[in-house]
């Protein structure tokens, strides 16, 4: 027999062999023992947490000759055939490679037939979120009214991509990441069964690198066993996983607290020369500072820390760091970690972070409100305030007036809007002119480049003459981008000309400034302007008001009357 990888050879075959997921095991076993199983289940969670394995164990427990039972016997003919994948009544379906509706219909057509030798026909659909919309629609009716002998188990790592109509017809079970202790315990069982010597430090390194996935942990373990020469070492595990040992971070942290920038940067250069990823290094540095912070507050932190070894040397290092400095270190390292993801010079960010970390104060920051930090000026201010309150109480009158606060002025817009040119357009604006542009607006957006059309998502024409129109932007930033983009400013009038047949001059303005210009124009021209022209402009203004538009949709134009305050 050919060699099988650990994650295949030691796949759990019963609920008792499963690691973690206690809440799921207990719920399914109780349903099996009380014969209250349902027709559809949704297993969601990160990769390698046991979704498909649980589905196969559940299928065996349902169809076991001694069942339904809390545990499959794994000895009867049905259990053996399900384990081998040869039972025709338990179908494991990969939606990633069979996502078409035709393939789903072929499966559904066979659902109505009774099982050949088992109690239930169980359909395990893995990566169900990969099904097409048509395939989901085909599956929906069967999930809603399945035959009594059919059970569906849907497994996915991305439940948000599944239609709610499918989710609402299933019992949902959310698989959690497996704890490091459970992963280490399972690896010990595997190595004991395989007769391979191990070091628990190596297993903890592998468990940390697996990020809560049992399959990943067993795959890495298989690789480390193959790489090592008889005995697994920490160095082997660090090389395979790309992780960094605790000793390196102890050296860096000690250099930082001593202010030895050269020592910290030298250690960084050595790690990068050894092929370590700077992004991974920064992530592990955040974890190391987190471990030091926990060690300052938890007496026995052996089971909680992830990266640091709880030794006397590390405990002394944790005491040298103040709590405030650890908070600041985690904050600085996290900020750099976020920034370096989008850079091609990750090592420079790490070097910058180490320099900043070495310059942090070793003293805790002053707490706001501490009596010892109140200055003489603050004391005098408090005394004056108390005197004012006492005077107010003694006089029984109104409160003593303080110097009125300066009202915060709204920041002036940096956009130079052509107010005079817009007013000229308003003087000759007509309803047919603006209606011509608005009627073709959707077609104009379709003819534009996607990046240019995105600038106009919240923009609309609000006034037009025969040769020019005003384009209002909801947000000032979008207006500024449109003005600054020379390519957009050149191509947009040409697209409008291609659609409408008229080469318009386009005037850009933010919404706030447009409202001021329109109000000023209406007030100025109320007497001297043409009545029909002013009515056209007022009507155009009301058309752009979303409240007016919504009211018109709900009640109709004949019941909506616009009144200007």
From TrEMBL:
Residues 37-179 form the AAA+ ATPase domain. Coiled coil: none annotated. Keywords: ATP-binding, DNA replication, DNA-directed DNA polymerase, Metal-binding, Nucleotide-binding, Nucleotidyltransferase, Transferase, Zinc. InterPro entries: AAA+_ATPase, ClpA/B, DNA_pol3_clamp-load_cplx_C, DNA_pol_III_gamma-3, DNA_pol_III_sug/sutau_N, DNA_Rep/Repair_Clamp_Loader, HLD_clamp_pol_III_gamma_tau, P-loop_NTPase. Residues 395-414 are annotated as: Disordered. It comes from the Bacteria. Its EC number is 2.7.7.7. Belongs to the DnaX/STICHEL family. This is DNA-directed DNA polymerase. It comes from Chryseomicrobium palamuruense.
């Amino acid at each position: 027999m050919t060699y099988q990888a650990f994650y295949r050879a030691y796949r759990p075959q019963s609920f008792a062999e499963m690691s973690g997921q206690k809440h799921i095991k207990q719920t399914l076993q109780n349903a099996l023992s009380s014969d209250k199983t349902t027709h559809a289940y949704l297993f969601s969670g990160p990769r390698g947490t046991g979704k498909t394995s649980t589905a196969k164990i559940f299928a065996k427990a349902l169809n076991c000759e001694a069942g339904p039972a809390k545990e499959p016997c794994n000895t009867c003919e049905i259990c053996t055939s399900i384990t081998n994948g040869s039972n025709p009544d338990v179908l494991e379906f990969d939606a990633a490679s069979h996502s078409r509706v035709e393939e789903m219909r072929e499966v559904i057509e066979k659902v109505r037939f009774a099982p050949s030798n088992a109690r239930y026909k169980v359909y395990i659909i893995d990566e169900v979120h990969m099904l097409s919309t048509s395939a989901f629609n085909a599956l929906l009716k069967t999930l809603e009214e399945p035959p009594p002998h059919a059970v569906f188990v849907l497994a996915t790592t991305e439940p948000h991509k599944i239609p709610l109509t499918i989710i609402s017809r299933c019992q949902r079970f959310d698989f959690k990441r497996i704890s490091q202790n459970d992963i280490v315990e399972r690896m010990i069982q595997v190595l004991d069964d395989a007769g391979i010597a191990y070091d628990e430090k190596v297993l903890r390194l592998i468990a940390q690198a697996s990020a809560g996935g049992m399959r990943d942990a067993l795959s890495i373990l298989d690789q480390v066993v193959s790489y090592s020469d008889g005995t697994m070492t920490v160095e082997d595990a660090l090389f395979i996983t790309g992780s960094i040992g605790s000793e390196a971070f102890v050296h860096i942290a000690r250099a930082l607290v001593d202010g030895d920038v050269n020592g910290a940067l030298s250690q960084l250069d050595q790690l990068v020369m050894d092929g370590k990823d700077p992004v991974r290094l920064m992530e592990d540095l955040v974890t190391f500072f987190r471990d030091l912070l926990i060690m300052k507050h938890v007496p026995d932190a052996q089971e909680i820390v992830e990266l640091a070894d709880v030794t006397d040397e590390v405990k002394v290092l944790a005491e040298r760091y103040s709590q405030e400095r650890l908070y600041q270190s985690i904050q600085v390292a996290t900020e750099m970690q976020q920034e370096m993801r989008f850079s091609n010079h990750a090592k420079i960010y790490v070097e910058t972070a180490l320099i900043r970390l070495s310059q942090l104060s070793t003293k805790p920051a002053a707490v706001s409100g501490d009596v010892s930090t109140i200055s003489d000026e603050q004391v005098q201010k408090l005394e004056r305030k108390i005197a004012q309150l006492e005077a107010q109480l003694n006089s029984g009158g109104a409160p003593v007036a303080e110097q009125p606060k300066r009202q915060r002025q709204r920041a002036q817009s940096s956009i130079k809007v052509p107010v005079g040119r817009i007013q000229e357009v308003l003087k000759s604006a007509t309803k047919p002119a603006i209606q011509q542009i608005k009627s073709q607006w959707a077609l104009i957006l379709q003819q534009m480049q996607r990046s240019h059309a995105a600038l106009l998502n919240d923009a609309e024409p609000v006034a037009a003459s025969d040769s020019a129109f005003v384009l209002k932007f909801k947000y000032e930033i979008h207006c500024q981008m449109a003005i600054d983009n020379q390519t957009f400013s050149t191509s947009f009038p040409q697209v409008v000309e291609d659609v409408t047949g008229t080469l318009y001059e386009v005037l850009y303005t933010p919404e706030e400034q447009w409202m001021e210009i329109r109000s000023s124009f209406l007030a100025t021209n109320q007497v001297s302007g043409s009545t029909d022209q002013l009515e056209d402009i007022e009507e155009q203004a009301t058309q752009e008001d979303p409240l007016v538009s919504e009211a018109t949709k709900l009640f109709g134009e004949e019941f909506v009357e616009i009144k200007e305050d």
